[in-house]
């Protein structure tokens, strides 16, 4: 017997599933879509028509644009989204977008009145630097701020970002020692003042264009610090919670005519404010900025908490001694990464006899590597490089893996010689495995 279908009763095939999703599910879908696609959901049904106007995260990048869009069209997209938006805006990101600075000024002023919590602005590398307006300092609910290829001036009346946890600055610094022309800038004092006014700051990344006489960081809650730049002195004495630190310098101290005698930065002084580190990376030429004065055999304050160490070194005995000094002072190290630096093809091979024999009778490798599990060596080319590998293998009883990359310009015959020697080295750990990954090729896009 067939039952008569009541009027308005729908069959399973006709149910509008997408309109009957729970609100939480709709919100989850929208926050995972680019802004352009989120706006397009308005055509799905009546229930979806105005859902997009309340999305909390607004990200404007190349994916928001149609190919060949003009500056006016790009600005119009953002204007319309902000004009129609309802509710709080948690995140605003504008990266590699076309609009001019005047448009962004207007948007920041709008955001400062709407409780914005996260701002990311990264200008196009080929464009002009963006002079951030003072209205950004009115964003008192910010917990995350990223400014790339921008200039910033901190007003003396600035009371601080009380809630800021993450600060990422890529700013241009005006300095008399700089050998290229700078634009409107953020001074050293402005940087120090801004950081000091962020009492809850936990993560700080600072990329600067020029030389710092003294980089003063006063951040009592700081846990992670990344720095890309050059300096004569560094002070982090008021950051007792610091556990993760990465330093990078593309230019050596000699570029700025800094003599060791004129610098007050040393490994011994460095450990005074970094002895609680769990991860330390000294990349590029940054190690050279900590070589002032006489190098101790072992640091007075040991790195008892250090688990990961990355060091980039050039072929000179003082950097090698500094690296060994850190190793002797890191009894609980688990991961080690060493990268040999050289910008000149011939530099790797034209060593003086003194430097070439340095690893022989002139050095005592007495580092305790009882907890070392993983090692990565980049840029192997010479006998002195292999000596370092040999010492590690013979002094690391729990070592599990050693990853090895050879120097980019090394000939195949030399590669074979290095691989054969590596296999003959005595290993303190029966589980130690040496893995050869071929020539190392520099990543040109970043550090």
Automatic annotation (TrEMBL):
Residues 366-437 form the FBD domain. InterPro entries: F-box-like_dom_sf (IPR036047), F-box_dom (IPR001810), FBD (IPR006566), LRR_dom_sf (IPR032675), LRR_FXL15/At3g58940/PEG3-like (IPR055411). It comes from Cinnamomum micranthum f. kanehirae. This is F-box/RNI-like superfamily protein isoform 1.
